């Protein structure tokens, strides 16, 4: 087992909270234990929706019992849509949760959790983790880079929830914190503006308390990220996105 900590302060903060938080984690997606349910709860998007040329697929890898997000990214602009000045994105996210006339919109409540954890195996492309919460604008997204320390190998990446940064149309909104009590969706996107194939496999995605993080650290190849990581790569704007994309 090896532990690679990016940002020691956030690493300490996660574990410091373990006495105050419940030990139970909340599984968002688990492709090994509930593959059909997890796959059916997701949607994929790409710039094809605006006339672009990227290919994005999400399917089940029976050999490794995981989800496989893969395709080919193109940044070529649509030929018949001069209003689009930037293209090149591929993403997947959980579907909107069911709502009702009586109870209104439904959200996840992550108040008792301190981190988002993802068990993944990817390449050297630059992926972004996206969280959408209940905010005044549908184009608001909370984002963080998904740094992979061991491309080509399985690893568990832990990102403190407080380190996600809110963006709107690519502009970072200073001082805006994630509303953990009203989370709408979570997903992963590729917007690194580089031509070519991409491949990311996902075993599971969970929200965790400090107790859970310390538990997986005993058995997992663990990477802990903090908000310093986000500064290395700009978060590309949503100028190619529509309301439906989110």
Automatic annotation (TrEMBL):
Gene3D superfamilies: Galactose-binding lectin (2.60.120.430). Keywords: Chaperone, Mitochondrion. Residues 34-202 form the NADH:ubiquinone oxidoreductase intermediate-associated protein domain. It comes from the Eukaryota. The keyword Mitochondrion applies. Pfam families: CIA30 (PF08547). One of its GO terms (molecular function) is unfolded protein binding. This is NADH:ubiquinone oxidoreductase intermediate-associated protein 30 domain-containing protein. The lineage of its organism: Eukaryota, Fungi, Dikarya, Ascomycota, Saccharomycotina.
